[in-house]
């Protein structure tokens, strides 16, 4: 029997990983599209990559919405969610109703903290794999995926009971499904893919929060400038380092374990950003420019609340959150008035 994989949210990241998973023999990869449905249904995805070359990926099935996927009757082994996490707008775990059975593994390739909670509540018997990726991808137009020079993905089973108690009998299945998913990615050519345990993956999430919580809101508040421009400005670089250091100092206190030595320091992150001359902007900046809702809660709000519940404050991050949340509310109110 082939391994059936469904990608929910076939934008740049989802489509790119789908295009690599489909290279694996015995694997069927289907997608649920949104605005790009007509193009992908007709012609698939055209992928350009300096690492993998130029190729066309035609999904096994292209669905216009979750209902079409449900009506297909396919029993999914993996449902990969690569949509933006916007809990202040909607609960996207609802999308998966009727697509997940007891042996399905849900893989969350999403930014931020706390993204797993809605899925564990709605699907208590399903395995949850929490994945963190750093990938330079863009959908330049419908169905056109541009992959740049680097890609990394780490995934681990989400087993929060291990934070306070003992392992459960179902843990083995979640661990095995996570390891299998990473193996499939490696077989598809993703060399920098690693399976982590629950604890280390959460450390990875906090480490990426240090990057996202510094770069994303700072770009928006400084006029949506690229990462490279921020890191090369002396005052902004000092600010970015301060935010990162605040997060990296708080995370071990919350998780009860030190960050691994192999994790990049704030100085190393800034040096890497200074060398990146691609002109790339953080996702929040792109969302702001397009008038879209930003991932404020999972990148800023949730970490602040998690820290505060444990008696820790992160004033630098809280300042960014307060300013940007109000800016978004003010913009949205103005848009609503203009429609009246």
TrEMBL record:
<dbReference type="InterPro" id="IPR003710">
    <property type="entry name" value="ApbA"/>
</dbReference>
<dbReference type="InterPro" id="IPR036291">
    <property type="entry name" value="NAD(P)-bd_dom_sf"/>
</dbReference>
<dbReference type="InterPro" id="IPR013332">
    <property type="entry name" value="KPR_N"/>
</dbReference>
<dbReference type="InterPro" id="IPR008927">
    <property type="entry name" value="6-PGluconate_DH-like_C_sf"/>
</dbReference>
<keyword id="KW-0521">NADP</keyword>
<dbReference type="Pfam" id="PF08546">
    <property type="entry name" value="ApbA_C"/>
</dbReference>
<keyword id="KW-0560">Oxidoreductase</keyword>
<dbReference type="InterPro" id="IPR013328">
    <property type="entry name" value="6PGD_dom2"/>
</dbReference>
<dbReference type="GO" id="GO:0015940">
    <property type="term" value="P:pantothenate biosynthetic process"/>
</dbReference>
<dbReference type="Pfam" id="PF02558">
    <property type="entry name" value="ApbA"/>
</dbReference>
<dbReference type="InterPro" id="IPR051402">
    <property type="entry name" value="KPR-Related"/>
</dbReference>
<dbReference type="GO" id="GO:0008677">
    <property type="term" value="F:2-dehydropantoate 2-reductase activity"/>
</dbReference>
<feature type="domain" description="Ketopantoate reductase C-terminal">
    <location>
        <begin position="201"/>
        <end position="327"/>
    </location>
</feature>
<dbReference type="GO" id="GO:0005737">
    <property type="term" value="C:cytoplasm"/>
</dbReference>
<protein>
    <recommendedName>
        <fullName>2-dehydropantoate 2-reductase</fullName>
        <ecNumber>1.1.1.169</ecNumber>
    </recommendedName>
</protein>
<comment type="similarity">
    <text>Belongs to the ketopantoate reductase family.</text>
</comment>
<dbReference type="InterPro" id="IPR013752">
    <property type="entry name" value="KPA_reductase"/>
</dbReference>
<comment type="function">
    <text>Catalyzes the NADPH-dependent reduction of ketopantoate into pantoic acid.</text>
</comment>
<feature type="domain" description="Ketopantoate reductase N-terminal">
    <location>
        <begin position="5"/>
        <end position="158"/>
    </location>
</feature>
């Amino acid at each position: 029997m082939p391994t059936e994989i469904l990608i929910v949210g076939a934008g740049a990241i989802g489509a790119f990983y789908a295009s690599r998973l489909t290279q694996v023999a015995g694997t069927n990869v289907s997608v649920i599209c949104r605005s790009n449905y007509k193009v992908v249904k007709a012609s698939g995805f055209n992928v350009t990559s300096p690492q993998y070359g130029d190729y066309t990926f035609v999904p096994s099935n292209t669905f216009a919405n979750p209902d079409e996927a449900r009506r297909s009757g396919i029993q999914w082994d993996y449902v990969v969610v690569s949509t933006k996490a916007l809990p202040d707008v909607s609960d996207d775990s609802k999308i998966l109703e009727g697509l997940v059975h007891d042996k399905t593994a849900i893989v969350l390739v999403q930014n931020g903290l706390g993204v797993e909670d809605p899925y564990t509540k709605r699907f208590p018997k399903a395995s949850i794999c929490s994945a963190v990726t750093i990938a330079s991808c863009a959908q330049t137009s419908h169905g056109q995926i541009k992959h740049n020079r680097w890609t990394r993905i780490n995934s681990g089973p989400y087993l929060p009971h291990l934070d306070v108690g003992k392992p459960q009998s179902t843990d083995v299945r979640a661990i095995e499904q996570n390891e299998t998913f990473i193996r499939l990615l490696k077989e598809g050519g993703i060399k920098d893919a690693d399976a982590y345990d629950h604890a280390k993956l959460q450390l990875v999430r906090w480490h990426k929060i240090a990057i996202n919580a510094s770069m994303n809101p700072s770009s928006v508040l400084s006029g949506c400038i690229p990462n490279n421009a921020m890191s090369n400005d002396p005052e902004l670089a000092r600010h970015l380092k301060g935010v990162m250091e605040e997060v990296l100092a708080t995370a071990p206190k919350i998780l009860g374990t030190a960050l691994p030595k192999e994790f990049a320091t704030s100085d190393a992150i800034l040096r890497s950003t200074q060398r990146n001359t691609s002109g790339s902007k953080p996702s929040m900046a792109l969302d702001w420019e397009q008038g879209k809702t930003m991932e404020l809660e999972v990148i800023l709000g949730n970490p602040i609340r998690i820290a505060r519940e444990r008696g820790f404050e992160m004033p630098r991050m809280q300042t960014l959150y307060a300013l940007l949340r109000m800016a978004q509310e003010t913009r949205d109110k103005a848009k609503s008035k203009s429609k009246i």
